[in-house]
Amino acid sequence: MFFYQGFRLILNLLPMNMRFSYIFLLFVVLVSGCSSTTGGAIGGLFPAPKWTDGEIRNDRYYAPEGDFSIALPHLEDTYEYRYMHIKEQFSQESDYVSFGPAATDKSIYRVLIINKVSPQSRAYTEDEAVQLLLNIYLDQLRSYQGNPELISQKPVEVNGLRGTEYLFVQGKAGSELNNQFIIINEKTRILLFGEQWFKVDDNKLRLGLKTFSQSFQPAQR
Predict the structure, then answer these.
(1) Distance from first CA to last CA of the chain, Å, rounded?
(2) Contacts of 18 (CB under 8 A, 6+ apart)
(3) CA distance 179 to 137
(4) Residue 12 scores a pLDDT above 70
(5) How many Å apart are CA 134 and CA 59, to the nearest integer?
(6) How do 85-90 and 36-39 pair as beta strands?
(7) Which tens digit of pLDDT belongs to each residue from 113-162?
(8) Would you tell me how many other CB atoms lie within 10 Å of the CB of residue 162?
């Protein structure tokens, strides 16, 4: 409920021509877990079937209607993949998919594409979009293990697209929760790639955000 109230408050504070439609509502829904989820385990024992709107083939995920494709964090023939969760949410304004947790690797990988839906909408700068997003997203993290600490912020390039990478860490020493994401602000859309993992799970099973984001391929149209 807090997120929905915060979302309405932010929108009410913005003039109509500044309302960057759908961004914050989308994050409220995704963070609250109101997307279709498949995979995981049945009764905590057996792998659940994966019924996805997108298509999985050759160790890649293909979004419906060919909007994009991206590498799976775990290969299809592995134990980790058999227990991996997949969450999807699609609309005219956005595409969202997350992968994980898996069998023993508890990392969660996310890709989000937000379309700037109206030519009349004011296009936020990256700094503005990130700050407004963090005001909502980080509040959810605070409720888990205290205040997230910004460890690093640096420019990055993903397949020729320039963006910024952020790393937040929270929790007790030895069991820290890491939240790393890359935001790329284009003229017609915003791309977000994210990875969340516990330090205790920082092992060779993790794909890593850099490899995950660089495997992204947009629609060929």
Answers:
(1) 40
(2) 122
(3) 11
(4) no
(5) 32
(6) antiparallel
(7) 877 655 555 556 667 766 766 666 676 667 666 788 889 999 999 999 99
(8) 12
